[in-house]
């Protein structure tokens, strides 16, 4: 249904309408692409060139000095490692919890499960500011401030709504007869979930993994609240922090921004085919 | 058999529920507690002050300023990414060759961190060599246009909103596209056979059937505007002179810069209440749509 | 191979009683078919036997063992679903062996059983394929194979042929009959298609709104339906029902006045009711003949259906609301609008009282 609507346009072959469409799209696309293009360009130019007003022209030679400087900075390495140490476990944990909970809501509903599900899903919507202070106090009391733990834990907890939502929606689309057939065969619930439901839900999990990893990698607020010293900073916090060090080193900042976006971009490109399909499953159904 | 199912219900649901309850629900309730104290974040002793914080809030000009700015942002969120995203989705759903390339271009900003988006737009708004001023110079022929978009109180907030919209529009577009592809083709083909003009089809068939998607997009945009923090932090820090201060940032400032955590909690409660109303309206809209469509 | 007993089984959904007090005894090796209109509870009853639905009150016993509170996996039953319910990411072999593998059966045993089932169902060349590479009929065979390998005490079939096209359905019907002949296991089969019921069953259980209307061999249900419902459900085309009143009675017969008939119709009846009792006369379409001389009923032809070997003629008879259906051998020259007379075979009639019971 999707493909048909896109591949066979229903109508005008060539008309002024179509031309106007194309033109406006191209203009918009250019406008949308410009900012990113600017960053990419700046990363490959010397700061001097940029300051002289030369940012928006294509460089004759790709200057790699900015990247060299960024990579050589030991703090940057620390930031990257920290962010990965937070994002990977939190992604895995929240997805795992979402799979378990999603299965119950999809296949083992009970009185009040709909309401409970809504409560969990609504967690997607409310502003994190409401729990900033109590969480700060909690982790402070546990002596975990300035470690990676609060970020891992909070991202896992805050990831539960979206993971549960997407997995539940996906599992709901798995025919009940599959589960029933397995149960009659003497298979238990855990085996049904892990041997039957999980293997066929890999696309949804791929989407979820992308979403979660991206979201956690890009996060700024929780690291801001829970870290103070440089050796536990994450990359986004690091970028803001390094602005002081690289104030007018625009080229370096550009390189840093590019490198910081690389992991999530790689993950996105890798799972791209599943991405929009996965969003369809969850988003429109609310 | 029922007993066995209950066993699995508990075993499978407990982990997620426990983590969610301990690290999300309980802190949420705890926040309400702090909002009626004068805690400063360090002192183990603090006093119950009743609704003092809330009374102060209502009279605080800073707060009112933040509310106005937040409201502006939410209204902009209601309009800009929604309308632009819808327009893009409609344009890209016509089967144009290369529409996937276009989609990726519009979707790309979503993958970037808010911090990086802020970074990018700081450069665009750069007074001396930023894209915006350079473009204005090129278009109007003025030789040196050095307007400091982020440093002027009159334009700071809107500059942030534009940057934010650049990112949010892609998400709106994707959701609308998903909604568009779920409209059965036969409906439109029947209209074709009946001789209904294409733009009328869009108006009378497509748009009404996009109601569910629209509800989602509006809710997400408004809530994201309400939550907006990272991008504001890096671009303006709430300034200049608080001209771009919003409730989310105001709360952070009071709590973690001025150490007035009781007061900060009260602000977060207000923020939460606003979010709650939006969520409530959203779920109500969803229920109404369910009645029509199912 | 074992017997199945249902004792006073009930089920409700909220305040609605879906299954009302069902008692049933199925002998070991029997092929029993649950049949009835949509919503009669036949699938629910089957699922209750399988353990997928709970029982409100009553007992279910398999091979003398009370399984009422046992989980589906503990009842040693196997089920074949209407949608086949094959695991899409596994090959046919993996599908068939899944249950045994998960419950820890020894590898050699699993392989032997799978080979045996594959041989019986003739699906040996398909074993390495995944469900999406199989046709509907092949998928159904793999589903049946999955049931066979478990060597269950009872086979449960939930409308297994409903998703197949007509030709395939007939073919698979024969396959299932052959399967039962070869394995000889106890089989409980649910269908809404009374032709499947008639051809496959040793005994048929006719259900209507959660109640068992009649249990018996197909021919018994055909010749001696217990009530109007069973009479109308079993037999294609459907039996004709004519309102009548008792004119008079004599030993062993009753005379009925039909609004459409000229004179009272005398039909044999062991215990005829008294005069003026309102009754319903049931006559199967093949118990009516088209006569050229005035006979019991008169009317005009409404529709003629030519099936080649026989013709089905629908006649509008005076005083009768519904069309009367007649099956005539060969090709009939009758056409829409023709006047026609119908003769009733007195010995092939059924008389029902006001409440629908056969008299």
Write up what this structure looks like.
The complex is a heterotrimer of chains A (286), B (294) and C (359). Helix content of chain A is 76%, strand content 0%. With 286 residues, chain A is mainly α. The relative contact order of chain A is 0.14. Mean pLDDT of chain A is 85; it is low at 1-9 and 281-286. With 294 residues, chain B is an all-alpha fold. Chain B is flat and about 75 Å long. Chain B has helices at residues 2-35, 52-59, 61-92, 99-111, 114-124, 131-140, 153-181, 185-193, 198-209, 211-227, 230-235, 247-257, 261-293. Chain C has helices spanning 42-50, 92-102, 107-121, 136-148, 166-183, 194-200, 218-223, 228-233; strands spanning 4-13, 16-26, 31-35, 57-62, 65-66, 77-80, 154-158, 186-191, 203-208, 211-216, 240-250, 253-257, 265-268, 278-283, 288-291, 297-306, 310-317, 324-329, 339-344, 349-352. Chain C is elongated. The two termini of chain C are 38 Å apart. The relative contact order of chain C is 0.12. Chains in contact: A-B, A-C, B-C. Chains A and B meet through helix 1, helix 2, helix 3, helix 5 and helix 6 of A and helix 1, helix 3, helix 4, helix 5 and helix 7 of B.
Tally of separate helices of chain C: 8
Chain pair with largest interface: A-B, 92 and 99 residues
Total count of strands of chain A? 0
CA-to-CA gap between the ends of chain C?
A: 38 Å
Distance between the termini of chain A: 21 Å
According to DSSP, the number of beta strands of chain C is 20
List low-pLDDT spans of chain C. Answer: none
Largest sheet of chain A: none
Write the layout of secondary structure elements.
The complex is a heterotrimer of chains A (286), B (294) and C (359).
Chain A: H1 2-7, H2 16-43, H3 47-54, H4 65-72, H5 74-107, H6 113-122, H7 129-141, H8 149-172, H9 176-184, H10 189-200, H11 202-217, H12 221-226, H13 235-245, H14 250-270, H15 272-283
Chain B: H1 2-35, H2 52-59, H3 61-92, H4 99-111, H5 114-124, H6 131-140, H7 153-181, H8 185-193, H9 198-209, H10 211-227, H11 230-235, H12 247-257, H13 261-293
Helix pairs in contact in B: 1-13, 3-7, 3-10, 3-12, 4-7, 5-7, 7-10, 8-9, 10-13, 12-13
Chain C: E1 4-13, E2 16-26, E3 31-35, H1 42-50, E4 57-62, E5 65-66, E6 77-80, H2 92-102, H3 107-121, H4 136-148, E7 154-158, H5 166-183, E8 186-191, H6 194-200, E9 203-208, E10 211-216, H7 218-223, H8 228-233, E11 240-250, E12 253-257, E13 265-268, E14 278-283, E15 288-291, E16 297-306, E17 310-317, E18 324-329, E19 339-344, E20 349-352
Parallel strand pairs in C: 3-8, 3-9, 6-7, 7-8
Antiparallel strand pairs in C: 1-2, 1-4, 4-5, 9-10, 11-12, 11-14, 12-13, 14-20, 15-19, 16-17, 16-19, 17-18
Helix pairs in contact in C: 2-3, 2-4, 3-4
């Amino acid at each position: 249904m999707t493909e048909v609507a896109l591949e066979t346009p229903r109508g005008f072959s060539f008309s002024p309408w179509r031309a106007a469409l194309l033109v406006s799209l191209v203009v918009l696309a250019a406008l949308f692409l410009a900012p990113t293009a600017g960053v990419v360009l700046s990363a490959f130019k010397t700061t001097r060139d940029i300051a002289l007003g030369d940012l928006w022209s294509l460089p004759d030679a790709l200057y790699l000095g900015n990247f060299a400087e960024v990579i050589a900075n030991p703090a940057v390495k620390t930031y990257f490692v920290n962010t990965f140490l937070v994002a990977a476990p939190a992604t895995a944990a929240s997805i795992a919890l979402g799979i378990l909970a999603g299965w119950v809501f999809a296949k083992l509903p009970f009185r009040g499960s709909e309401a409970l599900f809504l409560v969990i899903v609504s967690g997607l919507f409310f502003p994190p500011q409401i729990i900033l202070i109590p969480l700060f106090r909690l982790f402070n009391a546990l002596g975990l401030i300035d470690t990676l733990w609060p970020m891992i834990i909070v991202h896992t907890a805050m990831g539960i709504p979206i993971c549960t939502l997407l997995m539940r929606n996906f599992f709901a689309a798995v025919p009940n007869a599959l589960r029933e057939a397995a149960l009659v065969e003497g298979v238990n619930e855990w085996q049904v979930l892990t041997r039957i439901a999980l293997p066929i839900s890999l696309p949804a999990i791929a989407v979820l993994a992308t979403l979660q990893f991206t979201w956690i990698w890009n996060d700024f607020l929780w690291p801001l609240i829970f870290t103070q010293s440089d050796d536990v900073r994450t990359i986004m916090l690091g970028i803001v922090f390094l602005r002081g060090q690289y104030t007018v080193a625009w080229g370096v900042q550009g390189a840093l921004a590019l490198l910081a976006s690389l992991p999530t971009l790689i993950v996105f490109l890798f799972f791209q085919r599943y991405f929009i399909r996965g969003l369809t499953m969850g988003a429109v159904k609310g | 058999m029922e007993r066995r199912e209950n066993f699995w219900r508990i075993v499978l649901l407990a982990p997620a529920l426990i983590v969610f309850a301990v690290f999300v629900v309980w802190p949420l309730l705890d926040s309400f507690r702090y909002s009626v104290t004068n805690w400063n974040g360090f002192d183990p002793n603090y006093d119950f002050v009743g609704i003092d914080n809330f009374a102060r809030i209502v009279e605080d000009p800073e707060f009112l300023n933040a509310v106005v700015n937040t409201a502006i942002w939410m209204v902009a969120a209601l309009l800009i990414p929604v309308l632009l995203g819808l327009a893009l989705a409609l344009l890209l759903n016509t089967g144009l060759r290369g529409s996937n390339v276009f989609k990726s271009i519009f979707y790309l900003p979503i993958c970037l961190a808010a911090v990086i988006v802020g970074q990018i737009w700081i450069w665009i708004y750069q007074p001396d060599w930023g894209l915006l001023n350079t473009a204005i110079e090129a278009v109007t022929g003025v030789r040196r246009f050095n307007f400091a978009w982020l440093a002027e109180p009159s334009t700071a907030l809107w500059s942030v909103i534009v940057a934010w919209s650049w990112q949010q529009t892609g998400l709106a577009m994707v959701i609308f596209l998903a909604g568009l592809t779920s409209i059965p083709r036969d409906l439109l083909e029947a209209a074709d056979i009946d001789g209904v003009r294409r733009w009328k089809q869009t108006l009378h068939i497509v748009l009404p059937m996009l109601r569910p998607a629209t509800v989602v997009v509006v809710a997400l945009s408004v809530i994201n505007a309400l939550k907006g923090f990272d991008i504001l932090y890096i671009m303006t820090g709430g300034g200049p002179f608080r001209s771009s201060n919003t409730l989310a940032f105001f709360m952070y400032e009071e709590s973690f810069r001025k150490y007035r955590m009781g007061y900060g909690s009260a602000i977060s409660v207000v923020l939460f209440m606003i979010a709650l109303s939006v969520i409530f309206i959203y779920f109500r809209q969803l229920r109404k749509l369910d009645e029509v469509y199912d | 191979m074992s017997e199945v007993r249902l004792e006073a089984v009930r089920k409700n959904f909220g305040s609605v009683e879906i299954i009302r007090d069902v008692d049933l005894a199925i002998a070991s090796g029997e092929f029993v078919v649950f049949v009835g209109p949509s919503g009669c509870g036949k699938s629910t009853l089957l699922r209750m036997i399988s353990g997928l639905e709970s029982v409100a009150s009553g007992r279910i016993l398999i091979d003398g063992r009370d399984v009422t509170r046992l989980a589906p996996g503990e009842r040693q039953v196997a089920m074949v679903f209407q949608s086949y319910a094959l695991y899409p990411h596994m090959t046919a072999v993996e599908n068939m062996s899944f249950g045994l593998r998960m419950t820890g059966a020894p590898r050699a045993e699993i392989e032997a059983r799978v080979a045996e089932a594959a041989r019986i169902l003739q699906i040996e060349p398909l074993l390495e394929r995944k469900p999406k590479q199989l046709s509907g009929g092949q998928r159904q065979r793999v589903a049946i194979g999955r049931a066979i390998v478990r060597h269950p005490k009872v086979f449960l079939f939930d409308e297994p042929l409903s998703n197949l096209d007509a030709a395939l359905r007939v073919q698979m019907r024969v396959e299932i009959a052959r399967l039962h002949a070869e394995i000889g296991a106890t089989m409980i089969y649910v269908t809404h298609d009374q032709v499947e019921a008639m051809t496959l069953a040793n005994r048929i259980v006719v259900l209507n709104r959660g109640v068992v209307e009649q249990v018996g061999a197909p021919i018994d249900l055909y010749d001696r339906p217990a009530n109007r419902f069973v009479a109308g459900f079993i037999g294609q085309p459907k039996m004709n029902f004519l309102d009548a009143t008792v004119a008079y009675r004599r030993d062993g017969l009753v005379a009925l006045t039909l609004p459409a008939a000229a004179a009272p119709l005398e039909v044999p009846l062991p215990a005829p009711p008294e005069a003026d009792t309102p009754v319903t006369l049931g006559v199967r379409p093949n118990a009516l003949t088209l006569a050229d001389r005035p006979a019991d009923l008169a009317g005009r032809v409404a529709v003629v259906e030519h099936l080649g070997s026989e013709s089905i003629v629908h006649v509008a008879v005076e005083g009768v609301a519904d069309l009367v259906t007649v099956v005539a051998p060969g090709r009939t020259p009758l056409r829409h609008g023709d006047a026609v007379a119908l003769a009733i075979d007195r010995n092939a009639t059924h008389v029902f009282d006001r409440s629908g019971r056969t008299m």
